[in-house]
Amino acid sequence: MRWQRFISILKARDREFVRDRSALAWNILFPLLIILGFAYAFTGDQLDQYKVGVIHQPENDEISFYSTQYIHFIDINELERTTAIDKVKRHQLDMLLDVDEKRYWINDSSPSGYMLEKVLAGSGGEGYQKQRVQGEQVRYVDWLIPGILGMNMMFSALFGVGYVVVRYRKNGVLKRLKATPLSALEFLSAQVVSRLWLIMAITSVVFIGCDLLIGFSMAGSYLNLFLVYALGAFSMISMGLIVAARVKSEEMAGGLLNMMSWPMMFLSGVWFSLEGLHPWVQKLALLFPLTHITQAARVIMLDGAGFLVILPNLAALLVMSVIFLLLGVLLFRWE
Q1: What separation, in Å, do the N-terminal and C-terminal C-alpha atoms of the chain show?
Q2: Rounded Cα–Cα distance for residues 10 and 153 (Å)
Q3: CA-based angle 37:43:44, to the nearest 5?
Q4: How many CB atoms lie within 10 A of CB 84?
Q5: pLDDT tens across 52-86, in order?
Q6: Where do the domains of the chain lie?
Q7: How far is CA 32 from the centre of its chain?
Q8: What angle separates helix 222-246 from helix 289-303, to the nearest 10 degrees?
Q9: pLDDT in tens, 129-188
Q10: How far is CA 299 from CA 124, 234, 308, in A?
Q11: What's the predicted TM-score (pTM) here?
C-alpha cells in the first residue's frame, strides 16, 4: 500500500464533499431540525400503546384501569423495582404500578405518563399514591438525542460511501482508476477514512450546537461517547461498502441502502423504547449496528456509564465492522 496514492484519493474525496454545499448543509441541519421539533413542538400525540410496568399483578381486574385498551401491562419482579423506576425516568416505561402498596411512578416530563395518570384516576385508582421518580428526571429530548445523532451518522455513512462509489462505477471513474497503479485497498481505505472523519466532525458540530440550543443531559465521559460514535460510524461505513462492492445502478443502490437503513431506524430504539416488544424483535434489533450505538450512547449520556458497561456494545460493533469490511473488500470490483 502506497501512502501517497492513498492520501491523494483521500484529499480528492474530501474536496468533493466539502464543495457540495447542499449535502454538507443537510448533514448538519437534518438532525438539528428533528431535535428542535421534538423539543419544542411535541404536542403530546400518543402511540396506540402505552407501557405500564406492574409489580404484584392483581389476580382480577380490581379496577377498570387494568382492562383499558391500548395499554400494555408488563410484569415487574419485586427485585426489579429499582431498575423499573430507572426505566420510568428514561421513558422506557410510561408508568410503574405497585398494586399491593397502591403506589405509582411516572416521569413528570412524559406526556404518556401524564395521560396514564389521568386514566388511572378516572378508572378506580383514586387511592393510588403518586411517587416522585428518584434522581433527576430525563426529558424526552434528552432520551432522543443519542439515537438521532446515531441515525444521522447511519444515513451519512451508508449513502456517503455506498451511493457515491456506485456513482463512480456508473460514470466510469472506477474504470479509469483501474488503469492507474491505485489498488482496491488504497481506494476503499481512502473512502472509509474520508467519510469517517467527516461524519465525526459533523456529529461534533451538531452535538455542540444542540447542547447550546437545548442544553441536554451529559452525565458520562466525552471520550467514551466519542469512541462509541467513532466505532459505530466505522461499522456503518463498512456496511455501505457491501453495497458499493458490486452494484452498478444508482437506483439499485438506493433501494438496497434504504432496505438496510429503514429497519434499523425503526427497530434500533431511536424513536421509542423496545421495552415490552416481542422477544424476537428485541433479538433482531441486536443485529443492527445502530442499536448498539444508541444503547451505549444513552447509558453514557443519561446514566454516566463507564467503559466496562459499554464494552459489550463496543465488542459487537467491532465484530460487525470486521465482517462488513472483509465482505466489502472481497466482493469489490472496479467495473
Answers
A1: 21
A2: 19
A3: 125
A4: 23
A5: 888 877 766 667 888 888 888 888 887 788 888 88
A6: 3-40+140-331, 50-132
A7: 15
A8: 170
A9: 888 776 566 777 788 888 888 988 888 888 878 777 888 887 788 888 887 877 777 777
A10: 36, 20, 12
A11: 0.68
Residue 276: Cβ-neighbour burial (10 angstroms; 0-12, 13-18, 19+): middle
Do 199 and 233 meet the contact criterion of CB atoms below 8 Å apart?
Answer: yes
Q: Which amino acid is at 91?
A: H
> Beta strand 103-106 with 95-98: parallel, antiparallel or unpaired?
antiparallel
Q: How far apart are CA 98 and CA 78, in angstroms?
A: 9
- Encode 256-316 in three state secondary structure: HHHHHHHHHHHHCCCCCCCCCCCHHHHHHHCCCHHHHHHHHHHHHHHHCCCHHHHHHHHHH
Q: Which residues contact 80 (CB under 8 A, 6 or more apart)?
A: none
C-alpha cell at 274: 423496545
Report the candidate in 22, 21, 35, 9 with the shortest Cα–Cα distance to residue 203.
35
Model confidence over 234-276: pLDDT tens digits?
Answer: 999 988 888 888 777 777 777 788 888 888 888 888 887 777 6
Rounded to 5 degrees, what are φ and ψ at 120? -60, -45
Q: To which residue does cell 424526552 refer? A: 140
Across the beta sheet with 95-98, the strand order is: 71-76, 50-55, 95-98, 103-106, 129-132
Q: Which three-class secondary structure string do you get for the chain?
A: CCHHHHHHHHHHHHHHHHHCHHHHHHHHHHHHHHHHHHHHCCCCCCCCCEEEEEECCCCCCCCHHHHCCCEEEEEECHHHHHHHHHHHHCCCCCEEEECCCCEEEECCCCHHHHHHHHHHHCCCCCCCEEEECCCCCCCHHHHHHHHHHHHHHHHHHHHHHHHHHHHHHHHCHHHHHHCCCCCHHHHHHHHHHHHHHHHHHHHHHHHHHHHHHHCCCCCCCHHHHHHHHHHHHHHHHHHHHHHHHHCCCHHHHHHHHHHHHHHHHHHCCCCCCCCCCCHHHHHHHCCCHHHHHHHHHHHHHHHCCCHHHHHHHHHHHHHHHHHHHHHHHHHCCCC
